[in-house]
Amino acid sequence: MHASENVRPVYLDPSQPIDKRVEDLLGRMTIEEKIGQLCQYSGFTSEYERMIIEGRIGSLLNVFGAKETNRIQKIAVEKTRLGIPLIFGLDVLHGYKTIFPIPLGLASTWDPDAVKKAASISAAEAAAEGIRWTFAPMVDIARDPRWGRIAEGAGEDPYLGSVMAKALVEGFQGDFSGLNVVACPKHYVAYGGAEGGRDYNTVDISERTLREVYLPPFKAAVEAGAGTVMSAFNDLNGIPASANPFTLRTILRGEWGFEGFVVSDWNAIGELINHGVAGDIFEAAEKALKAGVDMDMQGDVYRRALLQLVKDGRVSEDMINEAVRRILKIKFKIGLFEHPYVDVEYAKRIVKCKEHVEAALEIARKSIVLLKNDGAVLPLSKNIESIAVIGPLADDREAPLGPWSCLGDPRDIVTVLEGIKSRVSSETRILYAKGCDVDGLSTEGFKEAVEAAKKCKVAIVVVGESRDMSGEAACRAFLNLPGVQEELVKAVYETGVTTVEVLMNGRPLSIQWSADHIPAIVEAWFPGIQAGYAIADILFGNYNPGGKLPVTFPRTVGQVPIYYNHKNTGRPPSSDRWTSKYLDIPYTPLFPFGHGLSYTKFEYSELDISPREVTSPKDAIKIKLKVKNVGHLEGDEIVQLYINDPVASVTRPVKELKGFKRITLKPGEERIVEFTLTLEMLSFLNHEMKRVVEPGLFKVMVGSSSEDIRLTGTFTVKNLVEFP
Ligand code: GLC
Description:
Elements: H1 18-28, H2 31-37, E1 39-42, H3 46-53, E2 59-61, H4 66-78, E3 87-90, H5 103-107, H6 112-128, E4 133-134, H7 158-173, H8 207-214, H9 216-223, E5 228-231, E6 235-236, E7 239-240, H10 245-255, E8 261-264, H11 272-275, H12 281-291, E9 296-297, H13 301-311, H14 317-333, H15 344-350, H16 354-367, E10 369-373, E11 386-390, H17 416-423, E12 429-433, H18 446-454, E13 458-464, H19 485-493, E14 498-504, H20 512-517, E15 520-523, H21 531-539, E16 602-610, E17 613-614, E18 620-629, E19 635-644, E20 656-665, E21 670-678, H22 679-682, E22 684-685, E23 691-693, E24 696-703, E25 709-717, E26 721-722
Parallel strand pairs: 1-2, 1-9, 2-3, 3-4, 5-8, 11-12, 11-13, 13-14, 14-15, 17-25
Antiparallel strand pairs: 6-7, 10-15, 16-18, 18-21, 19-20, 19-24, 22-23, 23-26, 24-25
Helix pairs in contact: 1-14, 2-13, 2-14, 6-7, 6-16, 7-9, 12-13, 16-21, 17-21
The structure holds alpha-D-glucopyranose.
């Protein structure tokens, strides 16, 4: 036995530095095996098995279960020449089997620690079953609720979106020491800016808007250490995002120093042909690889085209090596070579374990937003004599899972009806009537619903959208309640019974009639497997709602786009006719960004801003105030800090969120809340596209929503400050 025969190759020696292992392995790979690492496919077939054995696949997505991932991984590790493990990816956005609120609901908590916890649990369950890469967080800013994917992100604001992006990346990835998954902020970039809110549509925005609205959450995710990024379907200012050197190389790698790898969205490379920037798969592959897309998800373009492109000298092997290095680094970094398999029995113990389900309830409660509560109709008494529970979503097991729910199982869902039954006294009479479908025109069920309402003290009507009415390829031209649901609400309301409306939906809805008539409205989004308990806890006061809207609710779809951090224009809307507004609706939103009520009341006082005059670039502005719970119930308040730069070299938003804190106060308790504003947080791109803070006055606004400003103040910046 020659000495060399039993010396472990460097790439298989965990004591060696990762870079050394990468170079050693790269040096052993054929060009075909290198290209194989750049190819990802969905599911598993006998064809894929053959390709894996030939070293032509580097990753699979949509493979489920520990036994299955182990079985397939064994082929890659034990039946291939070099034994390079596969990395299994999946869309673990808000839960693997323990399903949390959809990301728009997570954002409604305005609680990064809670959101991080949800991501961490989701990662642990997925990783326990061999999934080591999630195609999340989705960090696309969305200002158009017609776009179904607004459900998957953190809403309309770059600051809130950045805070949530950081929390999710940290939650998913941890320190890669245990059951973590590699994060993949998506869809890079500006996918949420699709014209008309129509999925996959053109995006044409200024570089200023790109940099100040759509890029910040991605930057926050990269700064949080995201290991991968997903390039988007859309074309951006004429250049498709999956073949865009400006965004992928100049910004992502050049300006931000991103060192991970970029995976395309599903066949986004192949779709360069549809975009009309590639005449065939060879041109598509060449453009995408040169732009910086390292892995081809499900397009089968890299496999078919790259070898020929290398032979033709159109793509260098060095460029292939650059992409392979990034992918191998991630595989080494997460320990795939040392631990390619998972413990099936351990997975059974932690997936959907008691602690995880309890966390799902805790976070679902935090995500729920009380939109309206006239006359303090809520909370209801647990000893109420009778309740009619009505609506197509009242006993629905699908909707609470939301549009991306991995292994989420409807059988695990607690429906609203079940939740209500579990929270009221055994004496309470509960009548249930579906009333109608989510969609469809039949009103046959109205009679039963109205009869039930007439027999009860309160009617709880649970309406909204089905889970497939939001998410990918789920755009709506209208934002009202689908089908005849609004008519159902009206029919119940017209019986004279006290009516409470619970919404389960994946986007803002233009529920003007309900807002005008229904005394209490609760926005639950799609709250996950503990939906019924969480909603019932709000309805009966076991939990005082504290969530706030991460998106603006328009009065009607004609008002879109409408978002809080808009420009003032030369004629800001007012009662004067000759200003920027519509003739046929008020110019204010139905519910504003940051809106959310509580069963208690909070008073704000004693705003202190220091220093009032900023002279040094190093100065930070300390903002302090007091918040007091002046009600009778403990509750959470999300204190929001907005600023406005009223005079600058370019027009600036009328207000911008620059800080928030969710605090819990007991009745009578008062807390000092502090924020720190750095000059960089105030900076913007001036008329020359330079990042600056210009001298002048700044307005400070602190409040309970973007429209419910409680305290204001100012400070002045004395000198121009420029940033790199
Ligand atoms: C889809 C989505 C993307 C998802 C991917 C894999 O088309 O656009 O968000 O991660 O395919 O499922």
